[in-house]
Specification:
The complex is a heterodimer of chains A (298) and B (198). With 298 residues, chain A is of the alpha/beta class. Helices cover 42% and strands 12% of the residues of chain A. In chain A, strands 8-7-6-5-4-3-2-9 form an eight-stranded parallel β-sheet, sandwiched between helices. In chain A, helix 2 packs parallel to helix 4. In chain A, 55% of the residues are buried. In chain B, 28% of the residues lie in helices and 32% in strands. A nine-stranded mixed β-sheet of chain B has the order 2-1-3-4-12-11-10-7-8. Chain B has a three-stranded mixed β-sheet with strand order 5-6-9. In chain B, a hairpin with a 2-residue loop joins strand 11 and strand 12. The two termini of chain B are 18 Å apart. The chains are: A alpha/beta (298), B alpha/beta (198).
Chain lengths: 298, 198
Amino acid sequence: MAETVAEKGTWTVKKGLAEMLKGGVIMDVTTPEQAKIAEEAGACAVMALERVPADIRAAGGVARMADPSIILRIMDAVTIPVMAKARIGHFVEAQILEALGVDYIDESEVLTPADEQHHIDKHAFKVPFVCGARNLGEALRRIAEGAAMIRTKGEPGTGNVVEAVRHMRMVMGEIRRVQNMPKEELMSVAKEMGAPYELLLEVANTGRLPVVNFAAGGIATPADAALMMQLGCDGIFVGSGIFKSKDPKARAKAIVAATTHYNDPKILAEISKDLGEAMPGLEIATISPEQRMQDRGW
Amino acid sequence: MKIGVLGLQGAYREHMQCLGKLGIDTMDVRYNQDLKHINGLIIPGGESTVISKLAQKNLLFDAIRQKGLLNFPIWGTCAGLILLASEIEDNSVEPLKLMKIKVRRNAFGRQKHSFVTKIKLSGFAAQEEFPGVFIRAPQIISIGDGVEVLARYQKNIVACKQGNLLATSFHPELTSDLLFHQIFLNIVQRSMVTSLAG
């Protein structure tokens, strides 16, 4: 009998891994020790970085893919999936991350874009990609390029959830809008949003994005995580919010519990107690337009 | 009949959709008291470390284990299979110790080794093959007495059954083939008849 073929890097397994992360928290880490704290606290995956977004924002200059040795050490330290960031449009950084064997690549606006016009052709890779989006059109453009998971952009490194809320409300609101439209109006909406028509049609029929949709950018407390879950996201990315707070272990555990029990205010009250100070927050209006990370990419 | 799907973390919605297609009532299970309202439980795919920790934290872990010991129907897929095991090779997860199986986590490797293939069923169903979706999947490396092998991929055991406990290292809920959901419903159906007779 002939051996059956095993197909790797298919859309099913790319999208499937994101499905398995649902209801979970993905935490930014910069060392193997932090990765272990995150795993121990119940993170469903970690994002291996050289610096968390708040430090990238503070340092200024050009932010690039992390040193491969940092990523490899983090991959060795934990048994949960490890993600890493490539610059928008920097397909060679993505090739390197794929060669390292990371489980997911985040084509991320947190790093300085390498291409101001084009994102990576993500279908060309076996490794799955997650991308940021502020609205439905942007989400569907990224999915058409091959992203198997979407997250809100929010405003990274601020500890201010307002932009993530804006982006989640925008995506969910636009989904509700297209769902209630007669089919003949969808083509002009697709044109308006810059969204691929076939994908928009799918959203109108199913009432949801074709891939998993997480919240990211500015989440700093258990209440922030539960807020994003109640607004309809599938899970949470926490960047600077954990390791820039006073007690990362306690906060990491609390955010994990809040993401599971997001609909239960009594539990949320209990887990929000005695966490120490959250990360310092930034008012969005104090960030000059050229320093807003969410405007990177299109 | 009502089937509960453990909704702490992971792909629980997909199982509910599959059961919905078969006309079955479902609920997501997050607390002890939810177990009273269901006739069978599915532990879905997700991160086994996360699901185990969350379940231990809110006492659901022991409640599920007690039910399992009394032959309550439970089906674990991927992370769920890891939780049902009696031993995890690297001790990285606290399992429920319900099935006499020893399991290796991420046995096929990282995401780049995740794959889709046709697996061979052991002749219990009309069909010979099933679409196997393996995502950072675990492997059953040994089985004890009373564990029946249902499917293999190459030489690896990828589906098995022990009493009313069912375990698959792949994800039937990510395919349109409802065979394993039907198998589990048959187990639940029989256990309901038995408990009525008893």
